[in-house]
Specification:
CATH topology of the largest domain: TIM Barrel
Bound molecules: ligand LLP
Number of domains: 2
CATH superfamily of the largest domain: Alanine racemase
Largest sheet: 9 strands, mixed
Number of strands: 21
Number of helices: 12
Length: about 425
């Protein structure tokens, strides 16, 4: 379910017209649909109904505490990558006992905080980290629950910056050396309890094949670790891809580029029916760490057109959002559909939509056919709910945008727009 569609010529999020939100709160503005987030969570949960499982939402995708609270209330666990994300989960009312802590570079302070809060498990990415965690836990007089991340050396066939499961990536431990590490840890590391096994092969996967390949490859290892060390869970990571093309709930404008057949994302039901049979008989609790799937299509970034500039080679539509607000096109060649808030007919033009930042990479699309919107018109960049605001920065001393959560006919500010004083807070001139 995606709750963005045109109703009476105006783009809506659920029952709220985005024009109203743009007028009330200004632009650039992130808007999320609460019911889309919940629907995605519920559908994933249902697709896995056949196995003992827990969905640990990857907080990094969208970490606003109102979003985390929605998911905590729905029964989600959380996959965190920093003490900061754990702090957010706790503020949002989430339970640390349902948190896994991922990432290759956890610091001593982060380990101490997570141990004190009683997280479910550290997902460890190197032998050095495991030994360090053991030492920190010993100092505190506690035993740290740990899983090691296995790198299954599977090609996720996604953008190279978001592929993680190949031997040349920095993530996890080689498949061939992992059992030896568990064996040594069991003997030598008295302040570690080996609780699980983890893997994650990449993000925005649009086919079920790499997931199946990785699960089939790692399953015998998971079974042996259960046998030898009594591990209780296997996290198969996140990575479920979403629709970036043609992404309105209904009434997609005819001028959008059609998505080619080979990039059609998998449905959650396809995902479930491919992996559930493989996992049914492992006798381990299966954890999933989806981020993008839960929130990606549940958010848009609204931005106003400031100027049009017709150069000799190109037409530029300059908007008030920049790559600091949404970096995905610049960093991953990410595609986000453009939808004017007021449905527009008439001639199409080929243009680039660019932001105000002093970088050539500051664009949202290039050479795309679009309605000829003009200064003062407002557009939405769709499917911006994941890794949108979460990756935003103050580059060029631009205050972070506000965020709104829509639920039915109500719209709540879940983060106010930053002021310049917010941006400069903590700086000292002399
Ligand atoms: N688990 C681990 C260990 C991860 O590293 C990630 C994402 C996830 C789960 C969640 O993956 P998801 O289900 O969202 O695909 N900023 C990039 C994506 C980076 C993903 C990083 N790791 C983008 O905007 O495409």
């Amino acid at each position: 379910m995606h709750a963005f569609s045109y109703q009476n010529g105006l783009l809506h999020c659920e029952n709220v017209a985005l024009t109203t939100l743009a007028e009330q709160h200004g632009t650039p503005l992130y808007v999320y649909s609460a019911n889309t987030i919940l629907d995605h969570f519920t559908r994933l949960d249902a697709a896995l109904a056949g196995i003992d499982h827990e969905v640990a939402y990857a907080v990094k995708a969208n970490s606003n505490i109102a979003v985390l609270r929605l998911l905590a209330n729905a029964g989600a666990g959380f996959d965190i990558v920093s003490a900061g994300e754990l702090y957010r989960v706790i503020k949002a009312g989430g339970n640390p006992a349902h948190c896994t802590f991922a990432g290759v570079g956890k610091t001593r302070d982060e380990m101490i905080y997570a141990l004190q809060q009683g997280i479910y498990c550290f997902n460890v990415e190197s032998e050095a980290e495991l030994r360090y965690l053991n030492a920190v836990a010993a100092e505190l007089g506690v035993v740290a629950p740990a899983a090691v991340r296995v790198n299954p050396n599977v090609d996720a066939k996604t953008h190279k910056y978001i592929s993680t499961g190949k031997s040349e990536n920095k993530f996890g431990i080689d498949f061939d050396s992992i059992e030896d590490l568990y064996a040594r840890a069991a003997v030598e590391l008295k302040n570690i309890s080996l609780r699980g096994l983890q893997m994650h092969i990449g993000s925005q996967l649009t086919s079920v094949k790499p997931f199946v390949e990785a699960v089939e490859k790692v399953k015998p290892l998971a079974l042996r670790l259960k046998e030898q060390h009594g591990i209780e869970f296997w996290s198969i990571g996140g990575g479920i891809g979403i629709v970036y093309h043609d992404s309105l709930a209904s009434g997609n404008p005819s001028w959008w580029q059609q998505q080619s057949a080979d990039t059609k994302p998998l449905t959650i039901e396809d995902y479930g029916s491919a992996i559930v049979p493989l996992l049914k008989d492992v006798g381990l609790k299966i954890l999933l760490e989806p981020g993008r799937y839960i929130v990606g299509n549940a958010g848009v970034l609204i931005t106003s057109c400031l100027y049009e500039k017709k150069g000799s080679a190109k037409t530029f539509k300059i908007v008030d959002a920049g790559m600091n607000d949404l970096i995905r096109p610049a960093l991953y060649e990410g595609h986000h559909e453009i939808a004017p808030l007021k449905e527009q007919q008439g001639e199409l033009v080929k243009a680039d939509i660019v932001g105000p930042i002093c970088e050539s990479g500051d664009f949202f699309c290039q050479d795309r056919e679009m309605p000829d919107f003009q200064a003062g018109d407002v557009i939405a960049l769709l499917s911006a709910g994941a890794y949108g605001f979460a990756m935003a920065s103050n580059y060029n001393t631009r205050p972070l945008p506000a965020e709104i959560l829509v639920d039915g006919s109500s719209a709540k500010v879940i983060r106010r727009r930053q002021t310049l004083d917010d941006v400069l807070a903590g700086e000292v001139a002399e």
